[in-house]
C-alpha cells in the first residue's frame, strides 16, 4: 500500500498538465470554489464543453471542499451530475461545492457550475476517507 500524493499532472488542479483544467481552487470550512475558462481541447460538440470535463471540474472542487475539513486522503465513491444548460468554451464559469453532511468516513457534497448566477450543471457526490490506497 502507498499513500496518495498530489500530482502536478492532476487533470483538475495540476499546473503541469497541458490538457488539464489547471483549477486554482480556494477552500475553507467545507466549501470550495474556482473560476474556470474551458479551452477548445475541452470540447465535445463544437464550442460546447464535453460532459466528462464538466463532471471532472465539479468532482475536483467537491474533493477540495471535502479536504478543507481536514481529511488527509479522500476519494469519490459515487457521483451524479445533471446538465441543465450548455457550458461554452471560452466563457468564464464559477465551479463551487459544499459538504452538506459528514459522518464517520462518509460525506455528501453538492457542487455546481454556473455563469452569472445561472446554474449550467449540478452534481451530488459521496466521498469517503481512506487511510491508504492500493495502486
Task: Explain this structure.
By secondary structure, the protein is mainly β. It has one domain (26-129): Hotdog Thioesterase (Thiol Ester Dehydrase, Chain A), CATH 3.10.129.10. It is built from 1 helix and 6 strands. The protein has one helix at residues 51-67, and strands at 26-28, 31-37, 74-83, 92-103, 106-115, 118-129. Strands 1-2-4-5-6-3 form a 6-stranded antiparallel β-sheet, with helices on one face. A hairpin with a 2-residue loop joins strand 1 (26-28) and strand 2 (31-37). It is globular. The relative contact order is 0.23. The model has no long low-confidence stretch (mean pLDDT 93).
In brief:
The protein is mostly beta strands. The chain has one helix at residues 51-67; strands spanning 26-28, 31-37, 74-83, 92-103, 106-115, 118-129.
Task: Kindly list the characteristics that best describe this protein.
135 residues; mainly beta; Thiol Ester Dehydrase, Chain A; globular
Low-confidence stretches: none
The overall pLDDT average reads: 93
Class based on secondary structure composition and strand pairing: mainly beta
Spatial order of strands in the largest sheet: 1-2-4-5-6-3
The Cα radius of gyration reads 15 Å
State the shape: globular
Helices, by number, come to 1
Number of extended strands:
6
* Element-level helix/strand string: EEHEEEE
Distance from N terminus to C terminus (CA atoms, Å) equals 7 Å
CATH level-four homologous superfamily name: Hotdog Thioesterase
Our estimate of the beta-strand percent is 35-45%
Number of domains: 1
Please give the largest β-sheet: 6 strands, antiparallel
Q: What is the correct CATH architecture?
A: Roll
